[in-house]
Every structure is written in C-alpha cells, then in structure tokens.
Design brief:
Blueprint lengths: L2 H18 L6 E5 L5 E7 L22 E7 L4 E5 L10 E3 L10 E3 H10 L1 H63 L14 E3 L2 H7 L2 E3 L3 E2 L6 E7 L10 E8 L14 E7 L9 E7 L5 H4 L12 E8 L13 E10 L2
Parallel strand pairs: 1-3
Antiparallel strand pairs: 1-4, 2-3, 5-6, 7-15, 8-10, 9-10, 10-11, 11-14, 12-13, 12-15
Amino acid sequence: MDVSLLRSIASIIAGTISSEGIFKTTKLRIVPNVHSVVSTAMITSLPMMMSPTTTGRCVDPSLSPALISVVQLSNVIIIIDIHVADECPLTTINCDFHHVGCAVKLPRQDMLEHLRENLLTHISLLATSHAKQQAEITNLKAENDTLKRKHENFGHNYQYLEAENRRLKTKFEPMQQLLKTAPPIVKSRPLGPPVLTMTNFQQHKRDGDEWFSPPVYTHHQGYKISLKVYANGCSTGKGTHVSVGVYFMRGEFDDSLKWLFRGVISWQLLDQVNGKDHSTHTVPYSDKTPNTYCNRVTKGERSKNGRGLQKFIAHSELEPKYLRNDTLLFQIHKIELKK
C-alpha cells in the first residue's frame, strides 16, 4: 500500500479532529478479504515512514492519538469508523435499563436527564425483574428437589430389587437342583379343537348311530385320537345312557412314536350352565391293557376298539346343564404319557 495514502487519510482525520473538536478517538480500518494479516499502531506526533505491514507513527504533529488497524491484501477496502457508536452526543441509544423493560431511546446527550427523572420507574422495573428471577430460582430449586427425591427413590427401589432377587435365588436353588436330578417327565398338551361339539343330539339318539369327534393330537407330533359317542348308548347303556370311548387313529407321526401307547387320557362333558360341574372320565393305558385298544392303526382310519364307558352319563342327567340347544360339548381334558 502507498504510504502517502495512509498519511493523507491520517491528515484528514487529524484536520477533522482539530476543526470540530468533538472526536476523542478515531478508528481507521483497512479491511481485506478473509486471508488477512493485521497489525495495529498508535499514531502520535513522531515522524516515521510506514510500510503496509509495519507498525509506525505519523509525521503530522497535530494528530490526536488514533487507533489504526492495517490489513494487507490484494483488494483492500478502507472503512473509517467514526466515534458515533461510542461517543457522539447525538447518537440515539437505548436506556441503560432496557434489559429490565425500559423501552426509551434518546440521543446520548439527553439520556442522563432521562435517568434522573425516571429513577423510581427504573427501580420498579428492577424490582419486577428481580421478582421474576426469584420465582424462576424457586421453580428451579423445586425441580431440583423433585429430581433428588426421584434419584433417592430409584436407589431405594434398586436396593430392594437386588435383595428380592437374592432372596428368590436362594429360595429356588434347591428346586433347581431337584429338577436336575429328577427323572424325565413327559408333559403333554392336547393339540386340536379346544371344544368338540356334537350337534343334532336328538337326531343321533333317535337314529341310534355313532358320532366321531374331530381328531386331536396328544401333543406336538404325538398320537392321533378321537372320541366316539353313542347318543342312545351301546351295550349295557343302550337306551338309557350316553356311551363315550377313546379311539386311536392313523397319524402322520406314528413312525416316530412308541407303541403300544402307555399313559392316561381323560375327557370331559362340559357344563354349559355354570361352567364348573363338568362330567369327567379318565382312561388308563397300562401293561394290562389289551393291545387292540392301544396299538398302532395300520388298517383303516381308526382302531376297531376303543376304551371308555358304556354308561358315561344318563339321559336323565343331560338337561339342562349339559344338553343345550340340542348340543353336547366335549373336551380332551388331560393327557399323561408314560415313558
């Protein structure tokens, strides 16, 4: 940058200061693009040559002290910041209490009078602001206390759960050891329709025919069975009772099952009034059971012989509890497999 240009600018500023007498400090900034290197100098009355990157002093003894920021770059824009923002008495400024709500704006030279005349107003604004801050502090303290209590409660709950976990672990350890040493128990859950519905009971009774329930599996990939019901009874129960028996059927998992079947199968005739007083019968299959009742079905759909009761329930006991809307409801109640 041309040193004579800097001197000319400084002289203009100095002339302005001496002629007007209102500027105490003048700032001169040379602003480039973003790739700038800044050096700062105080200009007084001692002569010294200035280069674009050197701090120096101006030759004009009439200059007042001024802060000059010199920035070197290819494209330089010179901006002179006048004292307006900080010192000019004509500059409109905010009231010193604007942060608490005073919205007055006046020239700097009139602001002192405003402060004197509105002392009580400003005190009231300060009091209001202080009250709001106190309320906020109170709310924050309350929230903090709530969080502290929650934290304490969490700690107590965690300790309680830890103690309860230890207690239960101690309680069930003997059971776990017992299960490890106990012989294997095969539990079975019947798979099939939860309720076996026999409709048109009176028609079956008049015709004296038999009704087979939908098939049920004793367990997953287990034995396939069904109930056979004589509405008018058979043999010793004919004409007076309902006869019911369990029949094995040809199943898709028969190859992987153990034959002869050993275990217990029970069924229920469901109470349709109270839902509590079901009529239940259990059929055991032991080593004494004839093979024809518990062997694998290789011919036809189901076995020729089934196990049950010829006098399962008397006709006189059916209504109103078990026979409703000409319908009986059966259920395979329980199955236990003997290994």
